[in-house]
Amino acid sequence: MKSAISVENLSFAYEKKPVLKNISFSIYTGDFFIIIGPNGSGKTTLMKILAGTLKPQSGQLDIFGSAIQTFNRKSLARTIALVPQMVPLEFPFNVLEFVLMGRYPHLGLFGWEQSKDFEVAEQAMEFTDLKHLARRKMNQLSGGERQRVLISRSICQQSQIILLDEPTASLDLAYQVQVMDLMEKLKEETGTTVIMVSHDVNLAALYGTKLMLLKDGQIVKQGQPEDVLTFQNLELAYGCKLLVDESPLGNSPRVTLVPKKFLAQSKDYLE
Amino acid sequence: MLIASAVIGISAGSSGVSFKTVINAMISAEIHDPVLEDIIWRIRLPRVLAAALVGAALSLSGLIFQALLRNPLAEPYILGISGGSAIGAILGILLGLPHFPGVSLTSFLGSMMTLGLLLIMSTGKTILRKDSLLLSGVMVNAFCSAIIMFLVSITQDVRLHNIIFWLMGDLSLAGLTQVKIMALVIIPCFVLFFFLSHTMNLILLGKETALSLGVNVKVLTVILLVATSLMVSITVSQCGLLGFVGLVIPHLLRFVIGPDHRVLVPASMLGGGAYMILCDLLARILPRQGEMPVGVITALIGAPLFIFLLKKAAR
């Protein structure tokens, strides 16, 4: 497998507050790579650095073997797409217009789309099952539909890597599965490398091919889900007791929160 | 395709209106006396051209501020940028500088200074909400008005009346030279904005998203802010304070043809020009005697609309 992103000794600080401390890891093409960790662990900062919207103070970041500094804004956008958490809705574009904006890094000087761009957008909307909503305004959509529009735009960008910043936060359960299934399908069908920041360790366990657990700007553990999601690692990262067993679906760990009233009972369980 | 055809329809309609008013103004004057034809070509035509340029420039600058600040209520007059350039212009006049380039330059410096002040106030470390940007704009505006009044009151000049009249927005002094000066500055800006119109769409999605889609946000923001301030200050130094044009026209057009800036930029130009010509026409024909400053008309139309939009946004 080819290396999509390789990070070496990367550090970042806001003002004087260090957020990422000397991190090294690699992401390979075709990975479904999920970054988990408690609030303030540096997940989102790391995502911004990978997307090229923040510059690290030190360390090396290579994308498909070339240093990120060798990319200009447009060529970087053709390589990495970012799915942000929020969409501003004050200026209501319709779904098609919004998805088409993903074509920007492919457009010429005047910035007008050609018929090919419309084709790509149409395919992207087909993939996410949005074609019937193409003329709908963004502010008339549900949260799940909006998330799918954002994903369509990133597909429309035709980059080999897609970054997602907590795409399932604030979504209903049905939409959470829908969004995750969509990304898995995209990865399977097009070989796109998917990198995601997530709050939800169970979703991460069910979908991620590789996980990375962060705490205080350092990597606690990275690797296969079953190696990362052990109760020792999780307790170290999150600072609370958690129960880890195998999911009834098989082949992946399941993390259960332990309320205080069960702590005494579950003690023998954990040991 | 639908959007494109809608644009052609609207822009043709609005330029049709402005064309018609030009013709009307000419015909009505021609009835009296053939000698007056000279007046038409020397006074009326430059005035209409000036109105079209000023209207286009102001409505475009509103559109751009709305995109850059991601705030649908932003507008150079409301943000206090017009006020700042008015201070600059008055200082220039009081210093006895020539009207061009002296006063235009001080006016530009004034607008850049208020812009800087505004950006510092609204983007500091504290995360201010969108309304606070408008609020700081209103405060900057109030402060500018105070300084203007101060400057006006310490001069015992015959120029005083002129300054006040000019302040309220006045196209009556526009001659062919003024039109040429304005066109020289404003038209290159139009071309620039036309090229940058798609990136304005992306900027609306937020800095992070625009960056990740390949827009060099920093460079773009600087270019747009400087060019817009330049455009505003040239209109202020030539024609005074004309408020709310940048609010009325972009909102109207966004409502009709949607939020795509590749269409909005040319449409705002044409629509703003037509709107200003009509406002100027009203300013000329409404009063029994003489005429009123066109700024009175634009404010009478624009201010209520602003309140209406503010209420709508609050919901």
Describe the 3D structure.
The complex is a heterodimer of chains A (271) and B (315). With 271 residues, chain A is α/β, with parallel strands linked by helices. Helix content of chain A is 36%, strand content 27%. Chain A has one domain: Rossmann fold. Chain A is built from ten helices and twelve strands. A six-stranded mixed sheet of chain A has the order 6-7-8-3-9-10, with helices on both faces. In chain A, strands 2-1-4-5 form a four-stranded antiparallel sheet, with helices on one face. Chain A has a two-stranded antiparallel sheet with strand order 11-12. The two termini of chain A are 38 Å apart. Chain B has a single domain (2-314), classed as ABC transporter involved in vitamin B12 uptake, BtuC (Orthogonal Bundle), CATH 1.10.3470.10. Helix content of chain B is 80%, strand content 0%. Chain B has helices spanning 2-32, 37-68, 81-94, 99-123, 130-154, 159-167, 176-195, 197-203, 207-212, 217-239, 245-257, 261-285, 294-314. The model of chain B is unreliable at 1-22 (pLDDT under 50). The chains are: A alpha/beta (271), B mainly alpha (315). The A-B interface holds A 48, 51-53, 73-78, 80-82, 84, 86-88, 90-94, 97, 101-102, 104-105, 107, 109-112, 157 and B 67, 70-72, 195, 197-199, 201-202, 204-209, 211-216, 254, 258-260, 262, 313.
Query: What is the CATH class designation of chain A?
Result: Alpha Beta
The CATH topology label of chain B is: ABC transporter involved in vitamin B12 uptake, BtuC
What helical percentage do the residues of chain A reach?
25-40%
Which fold name corresponds to the CATH topology of chain A?
Answer: Rossmann fold
Oligomerization state of this entry? heterodimer
Termini of chain A, distance in Å? 38 Å
Secondary-structure-based class of chain A equals alpha/beta
Number of domains of chain B: 1
Instruction: Please tell me the CATH architecture of chain B by its name.
Output: Orthogonal Bundle
Mean pLDDT of chain A: 90
Number of strands of chain B: 0
